[in-house]
Amino acid sequence: MSTIPITPDPADEPWVLPDRGTIGMACLIIAESAIFVIFVVAYIFYMGQGLGGPTPKQVLELPIFTTICLLSSSLTLHWAVVGLRKSKIGAFNAWLAATVVLGAIFLIGTGMEWYHLIYVDGLTIQTNLFGTTFYSLVGLHATHVIVGLLMLIAALIFGLTGHVDEKHAHRMDVLSLYWHFVDAVWVIVFTVVYVLGR
Amino acid sequence: MFVLSITAVIFVIVAGLLTYALIRYRHRNLLTYNEPTQIYGSNQIELAWTVIPALIVVMLFLTASRVILATQDAKKPTDAVDVVVVGHQFWWEYRYPKLGIVTANELHVPVSDPAHPTPTYLEMSSADLDHSFWVPRLAGKMDLIPNRVNTMWIDPEAPGLYLGQCAQYCGVQHAKMLLRVYADSPKEFAAWVAQQQKPAVEDPAVAEGRAAFLRNACVNCHTISGTPANGRFGPDLTHLASRDTIASGAVENNPTNLKQWIDNPDSLKPGSLMPAMHLNDHDLNAITAYLTTLH
Amino acid sequence: MADSVSGLSSVEAIDLTPVEKPRQLFLEVLYDWVTTVDHKKIGLMYIAYSLIFLVIGGIEAIVMRIQLAVPHNTFVSPQVFNRMFTLHGTTMVFFVGMPILFGFGNYLVPLMIGARDMAFPRLNAFSFWISAFGGFLLYYSFIGGSGLYGAGSAPDVGWFAYAPLTARVFSPGHSTDYWTLSILLSGIGSIGTALNIVATVICMRCPGMKLNRMPLLAWLYLVTSSMVFIAVSPLTAAQIMLMLDRYVGSHFFDAQAGGSAILWMHFFWIFGHPEVYILVLPAFAFANEIIPVFSRKAIFGYPAMVAASVGIGFISLSVWAHHMFAVGMGAGANVFFVFSTMIISVPTGIKIFNWLATIWGGKIRFASPMLFSVGFLFQFLVAGLTGIMLSVAPFDWQLTGSYFVVAHFHYVLVGAILFMIFAAFYYWFPKATGRMMSERLGKWHFWLMVIGFHLTFDFMHIPGLLGMPRRIYTYEPGRGWEIWNLLVSIGAVIQAIATLIFVYNLVHSYYKGEKAGNDPWDAWTLEWSTASPPPSYNFATTPIVHSRRPLWDIKHPEDPDWNYE
Ligand code: HEA
Ligand code: HEA
Ligand code: CUA
Ligand SMILES: [Cu+2]
After folding, report:
1. Spacing, Cα C382 to ligand 3 middle (Å)
2. So what's the pLDDT on residue B29?
3. ipTM of the complex, rounded to two decimals
4. Is some CB atom of chain A closer than 8 A to the CB atom of C267?
5. Ligand 1 atom closest to C160 (CA)
């Protein structure tokens, strides 16, 4: 038998609670940030401590173009969600596709950078401490970009096949939180690796 | 000790109150049951038991910091003895750079007279993994860590043998990485130094053993000064016979143990990094005989 | 006992007696459990899983104690001994402590906040199975871990696996890989469950359950879970680095290439210290629920308790290097960590004193849950005070890495956490199964456990003070350690007997126990308002609460709690 009175108390204000999707994503972001912090700390700790080259100064170039692509993809994703909320599925698809393209350009950029580093400069993860920390930090970030990109592509496919409407705007919000986070991390990685690290 | 007494007092007070409450308020009479008065809190009391522990903490903290600063920032006297300590998997290497001595496992230091202290400064690092130097009656621990030099000092005031052992887990035989520190009177210490500085004894009676030693792989890992043997992976054996124990304090240094050790180190110290050399009986006896002459 | 709430039948109520299900085939039952996303079933699976590991970890402890009972013992080889303490420590922390606490959290949090399930039921099942897989992987190393000569089977690097012992050169073979992988997986599981609990507490509360009306248990789980994000993630990151080192040859912790052993220590303890509070806060949570009910008083100083928990959570993030006083940090760093460590005793003290004040003036019923809680109070007090001694760095230079530390942390892990886990079993068993656990066996269990515990862990302090380091598989006679080690070993056997009684009691009471009814303890939180065991939807109608103790309000309409908040 239940023993809870079921008559609501009229004095109580309406009962609204935060959305669980947003909270869940926020928690995930906190946890992920902690992981990134550790990798960044390792990078800073070993900065300039490698025994033998190549050093960051010799081989790293500023990836300005890809950085601009990645950061602007945050904007395009934002517009995509705005479009979705207004039920403009066409705009949503277009902006989302733009986001995917920009993210892909970033990844290709990273891939080319790595190719150059490995085959031209002879820097691998085994070469020295710089290689170790560089590839793991940038690689960790790139993995996140890949994951984000896969989810965006999935959303895009749903969008193109007509399975998305403004009821899903909220889910896209949560997803875009993740994407913004990945972008924000890049700002830090960029500062530490390409600015301070050189 | 100060910390001990403070914590003991706290324990007595809190545990006392708790016991009192438990006995006084245990529920006896099941029949005349009614709920006790509900109390939800009290700001004054709660403030009190926040502030009082905070004060105790500050007091403990100040005492602790004073000791930390006194130990870590102590000035090094000019006539301190310097020793370089290198931790190896399951044995200790000691080098006296100013005196030109290299030895292993048994550390000799001069007794330090409080009026005229001659502390020993240990510069510590490791050849492989983390170890920790711990002789409880001489000082606290200090870790030996690869790529890093830590320092500590000891100044034993009474002569004698101080026992200790490695206190940071370092693999299979962490348990038998024992430490022996001999605090010698100044005269004994001087004699010990003089003797260690000599090159290895060359006794013609054991020339055969010496040849067998040099013929075998022993030379790759061990040094005996004055001979071609200059390996650094294992302990320096130049003055092996002057030591009371072998294999980092694992067993007493006598011919039987020595022979068993050379024959099969694992039987005395399973997992030690010296391989069994599979010598024939003749070589084994000869080498043992040779090593026992290395005073 | 069940009549004590009979006065309530006048309240408008709904009959929740579950429909009797037809008997199912074994395979159907199994399928049911494996595919379930019900928070109660997942909670129970977590608990059962960690009980199994408790027994395994306990057997490992017994092996160690037999080996150490007398000097120069040859019961096991050094290699086996080293594997035993590595597995014991790893198992107890990652596969007993964490899952059992998450198990209780899973079971209780939704019930206590009046929710029907966790926020993300499928994530919940995923987290459980991935942690479970981690545990199996650790033990699979016995079979799969063989490698080169001397590499042995199970990992033998110690539970904090200091670098560079874990590098390929020093740990050939695969045993260490199993260790990192299993920790990595269980870490992912923990983060998933923690995320779930936070989202549940924040987003699933029933109407009226404002943050300041939540049961303290929900608060503490909120704090613990939030700490998991910040504490377990660094461990995950460090394990990724270690795997990269071992598999693709990077040099994070490789001393030969300039890598640093100290970096691992920092990363491990940035996780390791908050971890011990992650383990202890749920134990506090149980105490917060049990002590008031058995003293028949409301918890003393609810706001202070919440503040203290949050405070402990924050402070504990800044104290990690007190495990590293002997690595040769500068005096400044040492002083800082002494201070941050000590300051934790202030919020912890508040908790102790508030429990004391809750008991004060109450009417105490010494049923098994309360007995264990009382044991917890005394033992946690001692453990905390030895912790304070260790936090005084000069003292710690002597005692770190010695059996004094082992005694300190078992005092907390066993004397506080395990005791509260037992208390929680006695307290919530009736809710989960509908039957009471035997009080008589409970008393036996309690007293044997207390005797065994004190025999083991009181006397363990002494060899530590006499210079006995930890993690040694044998020792020389003549340094005054023999007698203490023998007593310690005897105590461990008594603990094993006590634990066996407990396990028997669980099984026996499950089938034969006295029927419990909905509210056997005459308690005040929401989980006691539904049937025992609760139906899969928990509450037929979503409850609405008006104070911290909704059932008190119903039982005492003349003097409800909301008058005092
Ligand atoms: C749940 C587990 C748990 C908990 C709660 C604690 C709580 C504490 N621990 Fe412990 N600890 C461990 C588990 C735990 N510990 C483990 C597992 C290790 C070893 C890991 C390993 O090396 O393998 C360890 C090791 C450890 C060390 C390192 C030892 C070493 O290796 O050198 C230190 C040093 O400072 C320490 C300190 C403390 C302190 C100060 C507290 C404080 O939180 C205690 C606070 C409580 C009180 C103080 C009592 C109540 C307060 C009052 C009654 C108020 C009045 C008191 C005062 C004003 C002092 N612990
Ligand atoms: C939650 C955590 C937890 C718990 C509950 C325990 C419980 C126990 N621990 Fe453990 N311990 C640790 C966490 C824990 N420990 C950690 C983290 C370490 C450090 C590891 C490292 O250094 O890397 C450690 C290390 C450690 C050591 C030090 C090893 C060393 O440094 O050399 C010892 C030695 O005595 C020990 C003993 C015990 C004993 C006797 C118990 C007892 O309380 C256990 C009682 C329970 C049982 C005995 C189970 C019941 C058994 C049965 C029902 C089966 C009975 C059947 C048979 C015996 C066949 N533990
Ligand atoms: Cu060297 Cu332990
Ligand atoms: Cu700690």
Report:
1. 30
2. 53
3. 0.91
4. yes
5. 23
H or E segment and range at residue A39? helix A20-45
Q: Is the CB of C371 under 6 A from ligand 2?
A: no
Closest atom, ligand 1, to C-alpha of B14: 53
CA distances to A120, C61, C132, C369, C455 from C417, in Å: 57, 17, 21, 13, 18
For ligand 3, the distance from its centroid to the CA atom of residue A25, given in whole angstroms, is 45
pLDDT digits (tens, 9 = 90+) for A158-196: 888 888 877 888 888 899 999 999 999 999 999 998 888
Cβ distance of C556 and B61 shorter than 8 Å: no
Give the residue whose CA is nearest to atom 10 of ligand 1.
Answer: C387
Chain C CB contacts of A139 under 8 Å are none
Ligand nearest to the CA of B175: 3
Phi-psi region of B86 (alpha: psi -120 to 50; beta: other; left: phi over 0): beta
In short, whether C462's Cβ falls inside 6 Å of ligand 2 is no
CB distance B177 to ligand 3 below 6 Å? yes
What pairs with residue B94 in β-bridges?
B85, B103
Superfamily (CATH H level) for C38-554: Cytochrome c oxidase-like, subunit I domain (1.20.210.10)
How many angstroms away from the CA of B251 is the closest CA of chain C? 10
Which of C78, C361, C559 has the CB atom closest to B173's CB atom? C78
Whole-number Å distance, alpha carbon C322 to ligand 1 midpoint, is 9
Asked if C165 and C171 count as a contact pair (C-beta separation under 8 A), the reply is yes
CA distances from B134 to B147, B177, B195, C470, C478 (A): 20, 11, 27, 12, 18
* CB of C93 sitting under 6 A from ligand 1: no
Cβ of C160: how many Cβ atoms within 10 Å? 17
Q: Give the C-alpha separation, C117 to B271, whole Å.
A: 53
Helix (H) or strand (E) holding B11: helix B2-24
Which carries the bigger pLDDT value, residue B6 or residue A2? Answer: B6
Smallest Cα–Cα separation from C506: which of C451, C428, C565?
Answer: C428
H-state helical runs in B73-222: 186-197, 207-215, 218-221
Residue B221 CA to residue A175 CA, distance in Å, equals 61
Identify the CATH number of the domain defined by range A21-52+64-196. 1.20.120.80
Low-confidence spans in chain B with pLDDT less than 70? 1-4, 20-21, 23-34
| Contacts of range C559-564, beta carbons closer than 8 Å, 24 or more positions apart | C559/B38, C561/C298, C564/B38, C564/B40
Q: Say how far apart CA A73 and CA A70 lie, in whole Å.
A: 5
- The response to whether residue C341 sits with its C-beta less than 6 Å from ligand 1 reads yes
More confident residue, C235 or C4: C235
Helix axes C26-35, C39-68, angle to 10 degrees: 90
Q: Could you read off the pLDDT of C466-498 as tens digits, one per residue?
A: 889 999 999 988 888 989 999 999 999 999 999
A23 contacts C203? CB cut-off 8 A: yes
Per-residue model confidence as pLDDT tens digits over B61-76: 888 888 888 877 777 7
Hey, whose CA ends up nearest to atom 1 of ligand 3?
A: B131
Ligand nearest the Cα of residue C278 is 1
User: Which of B5, B10, B52, B132 to probe ligand 1 with, by most ligand atoms within 8 A of CB?
Assistant: B10
pTM: 0.92
Cβ burial of B148 (10 Å; 0-12, 13-18, 19+) is middle
CA dihedral sign, ordered B163, B168, B171, B172: positive
Which residues is C435 bridged to in the sheet?
C515
Could you give the residue ranges of the DSSP H alpha helices within C175-315?
A: 175-203, 216-248, 261-295, 302-315
For ligand 2, whether the C-beta of C410 sits within 6 Å is yes
Q: Cis link prior to C282 (omega < 30° from 0)? A: no
- Angle C78-90/C175-203 helices, nearest 10 degrees? 10
Which residues, other chains included, contact A16 with Cβ-Cβ below 8 Å and sequence gap of 6+?
none
Domain boundaries, chain A: 21-52+64-196
